[in-house]
Amino acid sequence: MLKVLIIEDERKVARFIQKGLSAEGMETTIAETGDDGIRFAVERAFDVITVDLSLPGIDGINVIRTLRERQISSSILVLSARGALEDKLLGFGVGADDYLPKPFAFDELVVRIRALARRRANSIQNHKLSYSDLEMDLQTRRVRRGDQEIELTAREFNLLELFLRNPEQVLTRAKIGEAVWREQFERETNVIEVYMMYLRKKIEDPNAPLLLHTMRGVGYRLCELPERA
Ligand code: CA
What is the pLDDT of residue 33? Predict the structure, then answer.
């Protein structure tokens, strides 16, 4: 169910939006001030946040700026009666994703919210790689195995990323060298072996299936086998 936060000080307008979105099967929350809006957005994950620009106290532009500063990744749709180009640009400048001038047709609002939510879901999917219980977020550069967070150096991260992009395939030393070390790669060194050892120390778990396998004389393979090879 799509979760939408409505930051709107005019109760009638807020209720109208809430009623309509609920009828579309969305879960809605109203915040009547910018401060409440920020608090709700930090406490709970919303797919989309609609922000009215003229709010008493902290105004809409500053609400959006604060949300982005606090790393809130919900999609933000500005709803403004002011409608001026300047407001629109200001909104985008502080991190809004879309803009709809008031008054608007309700269907238009629903279409925009669904599009924003879809775009957000895609981008969340696209910047994550996973295999078995290993998960890598390319945007935050976080890596986890199960619920265990793993700290990797930049080189280790790039090496693991290559395996996650090519799961279950045998990667030769030459391919790994080219992809991860590029022109700095020297064939005669054992740098890949050394880094594979570092990576294994960090990601392998003695109580879980082995993931990084050595294919003797060929290279390595990221693969989940029922027993240790
Ligand atoms: Ca207002």
Answer: 97
pLDDT beneath 70, residues of the chain = 83, 226-229
CATH of 3-123, one of 3.40.50.300, 3.40.50.2300, 3.30.1540.10, 3.40.50.1820: 3.40.50.2300
CA of 116 to the centre of ligand 1 (A): 22
> 65-79 pLDDT, tens per residue?
999 888 788 999 999
168 neighbors 211 (Cβ within 8 angstroms) = no
Q: How far is the CA of 158 from the centre of ligand 1 (A)?
A: 47
Residue 197 CA to residue 131 CA, distance in Å, equals 19
Residue 76 CA to ligand 1 center (angstroms) comes to: 16
Rounded to the nearest angstrom, the gap between the alpha carbon of residue 18 and the centroid of all alpha carbons in its chain is 26
Distance 6 CA to ligand 1 centre (A): 12
**Ligand 1: centre distance to CA 109 (Å):** 17
CA of 24 to the centre of ligand 1 (A): 24
The predicted structure's pLDDT at residue 184: 77
Fold (topology level) of 129-222: Arc Repressor Mutant, subunit A (1.10.10)
Q: How far is the CA of 175 from the centre of ligand 1 (A)?
A: 58
Q: Which helix (H) or strand (E) holds 123?
A: helix 106-126
- What pLDDT score was predicted for residue 83? 63
For the beta sheet containing 75-80, the strands, ordered from the edge strand earlier in sequence to the opposite edge, are 27-31, 3-7, 48-52, 75-80, 98-101
